[in-house]
Design goal:
globular; 8-stranded parallel sheet; 21 helices; TIM Barrel; about 550 residues
């Protein structure tokens, strides 16, 4: 009751507050006389107050729980969108109608609504960049299995991961209610949730869904007070049965090579406890790790984590930057015999709640280029069969997944897709702590808008519907399993009169070709400069 009283004085509840005040004032002025001019006003304000009270406690729409009465304007505009969208709902990025927004597809699937459209495609199929899947005359029956791939086949405790999982999003960036809903949905749908670098929180643990624990340069949850890696704390948390894999983050797509600071004012007692940092001080994520400084040391660190976790799969995540750095890791694998169990390739188009404009727009390799590079490099050094590859970067639909699998991924991670399933409306207020749907906020009065058990069902629905759509695409291509997608299944228009397959655009080397010195210009110069003993390249004069 006290919280509702506090809420009544916030701008978000001004409409409800004014209606209740108007109802009381008019009721007092009418003095019970139905003929009074204030009587009709009393009825009107009473009806609006009742509507607002219903909005405040209903569980279906988070936006109504945050903005009772006033949020109905948004739904009114949505209802008239088919008639007005050509005037008001154009996508500013590419001019395509709002109905093409992937967010709408995710909403429909999360709510188990019909996701079909009339009157065919709404985009120019002769526009440069248009892509399509080559179907087969001999289509196959649609598979109904829960598609999975095994990670860490040589580990003591391998994990069969779903082909679609929740990408890294930390508690702190997302609300506790959002983390709780995502993990409950993951448990019900039998897929995994990546913790992000913010640590394994009670909100992740509450529902028992499978977890990929991300360790970044801040070592949150497994650090000393000075910020160094603490093996004892790591082993304690990594032994949790809910944690299935360990992921070391080298960089993320939205701001690769950039650290981060959570200001002291935002470091609550809860966040300080979960991350293992002191209250009253800035929580710093350095740009680089302190536990290793060379490719060989990095692989030794991964091996150490695998041992400390009891034999769980250990890998790393990166957005590809300088090609010789990744090739240096490959050379270190060959020299030491050590290798990760998996690699997650994040694209520079990946999102975050807060990043500098220059980093978001102009640093890092796009996901498809980075994925093809990593996939082909591992083929070239003869290690592709030993290492699984995950990929993330604006993946929200089954076509996004199929295309990513064709380029070399074994599974896909999605962040914004699952955020949409939670009810995110892309208000672009993640960094302000004023998220209107309770997804990306630490304000408890806003987080209450998100009802975790209800949103968990939508998370599961989105996952299930997307995998069904993926099965339909595979069957249409004449395949029995999505893992059979190959680059030649996809075409990209490179001019109004020409198209090329992904096999033409991303030619693969022969297995082990790099060991024989056989590589094209994409790799040759970087390979010569890559050194297993350093992330710094060899000088040009000696490369």
């Amino acid at each position: 009751m006290l919280r509702l009283l506090i809420l009544s004085f916030t701008p978000r509840f001004v409409a409800l507050t004014l209606c209740v005040a108007g109802f009381l004032a008019c009721a007092f002025a009418a003095k019970g006389e139905w003929s009074s001019p204030f009587f009709l006003a009393t009825l009107a304000f009473g009806a609006l107050s009742t509507l607002g009270a219903h909005d405040l406690f209903q569980r279906e729409h988070a936006i109504l729980r945050s903005y009772p009465i006033s949020a109905h304007l948004r739904f009114l505009l949505e209802n008239v969108r088919p008639e007005l969208r050509q005037y008001f709902f154009e996508d500013n990025k590419d001019g395509r109608p709002f109905s093409r927004d992937k967010r709408a597809v995710v909403y429909q699937r999360a709510k188990m609504n019909i996701d079909k459209r009339p009157f065919g495609t709404e985009i120019d199929v002769y526009e440069e960049g248009f892509e399509w899947l080559r179907h087969s005359i001999a289509a196959r029956p649609i598979s109904h299995e829960h598609f999975r791939t095994r990670v860490g086949a040589g580990c003591a405790r391998p994990y069969d991961i779903s082909l679609l999982n929740i990408s890294a999003m930390s508690f702190g960036a997302l609300s506790g209610a959002a983390i709780r809903a995502l993990n409950l949905g993951a448990r019900k749908g039998e897929f995994a949730q990546d913790t992000g670098e913010g640590g394994f929180s009670p909100y992740h643990a509450e529902s028992g869904g499978d977890i990929v624990w991300q360790i970044a340069s801040g070592y949150f949850g497994c650090r000393t007070l000075a910020g160094a890696f603490d093996p004892e704390k790591f082993a304690t948390i990594a032994g949790n049965e809910q944690i299935k894999m360990i992921e070391v983050k080298l960089s993320q797509g939205a701001k690769p090579g950039h650290g981060g600071v959570l200001p002291a004012a935002k470091v609550s007692a809860e966040i300080a406890r979960i991350r293992g940092v002191p209250m009253g001080e800035d929580c710093v994520s350095p740009a680089a790790h302190s536990a290793f400084s060379t490719p060989i040391e990095f692989l030794q660190f991964l091996a150490r984590l695998r041992a400390l976790s009891g034999g769980k799969p250990v890998g790393f995540k990166l957005c590809v930057g300088q090609p010789w750095e990744f090739l240096a890791i490959c050379k270190a694998m060959l020299e030491t015999g050590l290798h990760p169990d998996f690699i997650v390739v994040d694209g520079k188009e990946g999102g975050t709640g807060s990043a500098p404009l220059e980093f978001m727009d102009h640093i890092g390799m796009p996901m498809r280029d980075g994925l093809a590079f990593v996939h082909h490099a591992l083929i070239g050094v003869g290690l592709r069969d030993a290492i699984r590859i995950g990929a993330s970067g604006k993946i929200a639909t089954a076509f996004d997944m199929a295309r990513t699998l064709a380029l070399g991924a074994d599974w896909c991670n999605s962040a914004r897709g699952f955020m949409f399933a939670l009810g995110c409306i892309q208000s672009l207020s993640c960094h302000t702590d004023r998220c209107p749907t309770g997804v990306a906020t630490q304000d408890p009065t806003r987080a209450r808008a998100l009802v975790a058990p209800d949103k968990a069902e939508r998370v599961r629905n989105f996952h299930r519907a997307t995998l069904i759509a993926l099965a339909e695409l595979a069957a249409a291509a004449g395949l029995d399993h999505p893992s059979q997608f190959e680059p030649e299944h996809f075409c990209r228009r490179i001019s109004p009169h020409e198209a090329a397959t992904f096999a033409d655009l991303y030619p693969a080397p022969a297995p082990g070709a790099f060991l024989a010195g056989e590589m094209d210009a994409r790799f040759a110069a970087a390979w010569r400069r890559a050194r297993p003993e350093s992330f710094r390249p060899a000088p040009l004069a000696t490369a």
